[in-house]
Amino acid sequence: MRTRKQRWYRLLHTDKEVVNTAAELNTGSSCHLQLHLFTHTMSFLPPAIRQGLISTRCLRGPKYICPRLSQRIGHRSLHAKATEYLQAHDPDWTESQRTIRESIAKVCSKFPDEYWLNAEETKRYPLDFQAALAKDGWLGVCMPTEFGGSQLGISEAAVMMQTISESGAGMSGASSVHMNIFGLEPVVRFGNAEQKQRFLIPLIQGRERACFAVTEPNTGLDTLKLRSMATRDGDHYILRGSKIWISTAQHAEKILILVRTTQLDKVTKPSQGLSLFYTDLDRSQVDVSEIPKMGRAAVDTNTLFFENWKVPAADMIGEENNGFKMIMHGMNAERILIAAEALGLGYAALRRAAIYANERQVFGRSIGQNQGIQHPLADSWMNLEAARLMVYQAARMYDAGYTSGEYANAAKYLAAEAAFRACERAVMSHGGMGYAREYHVERYLREAFIPRIAPVSPELICNYIGERVLGLPKSY
Prior knowledge:
Strand order of the largest sheet: 1-4-5-8
GO molecular function, one term: acyl-CoA dehydrogenase activity
CATH architecture of the largest domain: Up-down Bundle
Pfam family, one: Acyl-CoA_dh_N
CATH topology of the largest domain: Butyryl-CoA Dehydrogenase, subunit A, domain 3
Organism: Ajellomyces dermatitidis (strain ATCC 18188 / CBS 674.68)
CATH class of the largest domain: Mainly Alpha
Family: Belongs to the acyl-CoA dehydrogenase family.
Order of helices and strands: HHHHHHHHHHHHEEEEEEEEHEEHHHHH
Cofactor: FAD
Distance between the termini: 65 Å
Helix content: 40-55%
Number of strands: 10
Number of helices: 18
Structural class: alpha+beta
């Protein structure tokens, strides 16, 4: 005789049993079977389930489970295992956002946890994962339709990135496509017609990959003090300098790079004198050196050194000396997407912790019965949900044209902190097994440092809120 948790596992993973259970419960009964599942769970259910055997009309307020189903698999067990699919976290999403989640989850299901574990251990870049998303046109989710994109908003892109990370791909999966999703917004907004045609189509189709280079070894987040220079030489610019923490540069064909075209001591404002180029990453002129790092080994991070890098003047985006203004247009969107990726990572860790806490038996009972396990996980779920509300609020405001950065920064801060805590608690809930790679949560914890640190530290976000929202004196 199967235990309740075994029956629940089979309910989620065996279509036939779902159909039979639903049919049995609906025969001669007026009750509706209302399963609290995510759209990516619904995507692999047969049509009979999607067309009425399961009612998902109750999108607001409490969800009620048929009492007879509760008797069969247990209300508490259902609620615990539902964490695996996190279907409860989209009550405020639109139908198009749910469709995106379902479609992305279907792609991600072809790349299970073992794929990402192997990619991590072998430091293998997930080119096939990126190609699978490109095949279905997802790399152009925010790009203009005239170039093959879908021209959807950051809200939809955030759903996509959360789903990727939450699938178990974590930051490795998200980072492999992050730049392609919205990184070329400066080209979309400020590029000329010829540049858009030349640059956007290959990126959307997945034929080219891009990386983004701003940070320098001696300036960090003090972007206005960049030292890398570009000097005009006929129809070209000669670039000299260095960049650091450049993701995917080992595999990117293109690079979006910010450099100085006027010396800092010759401009009237610090934000002047910086120019933006989108050009070939010519490794015969640029030394690309990978940085060994704690996590996300599947996706490289690099330093760049260039002394006489010849870049066509036609690859400059917008006007000379106005590059800083251009990259600022994409900063809020980047923070929102990073926040969504952090959410996915936190939910993935929490899902594994809940499953393990249900299955692990010590002293004759599930460790999930112990409040020392249960309460921290419940707290993390609430923190993730609170952060999720901020993330999608920030996304909606961005899509509506709101340009101030307090909500995007707050979303990044809250999501990163909630995700880190969830990953840490997932490791601790596994005990010694949390330290074993085969359980994946240690990988999540190592990757959880990325959204905490990048693209801006939590301390600088607090500075921003203190000054811009609370009106406090500048602290640095």
